[in-house]
Design brief:
The protein has four helices and no strands.
């Protein structure tokens, strides 16, 4: 491919962005491991070691075992979190009503 420098540049860009995508996926899975409340401390340690030492196998295994909440289940709040959010919102509205504008 040395006779096609533009193709080499495109191939290099493709590999670079594929590497960035892979890095993003590894970080996403690690964040999901530590956010997960249904995995114990030792389970989190085990998953982290597996994802770091054997990333391809670790990520695929994690997605098979815990994939139901990896990408879609995090957008839903628990009822307690929803109630706390509504309470904070109401408290903020009350405080905003007592603030005088600065002129």
């Amino acid at each position: 491919m040395s006779g096609y420098p533009l193709l080499d540049a495109f191939w290099t860009m493709f590999l670079f962005f594929a590497w960035l995508l892979w890095l993003f996926l590894v970080v996403w899975v690690l964040m999901d491991i530590f956010r997960s409340r249904d995995i114990s401390g030792w389970g989190k340690a085990g998953w982290t070691v597996l994802v770091i030492l054997l990333p391809l196998i670790g990520i695929l295994a994690y997605e098979v075992v815990h994939g139901d909440h990896l990408f879609g289940g995090r957008g839903q709040y628990s009822p307690e979190a929803q109630a706390d959010s509504e309470t904070e919102f109401e408290r903020g509205k009350e405080q905003a009503q007592h603030v005088r504008p600065v002129m």
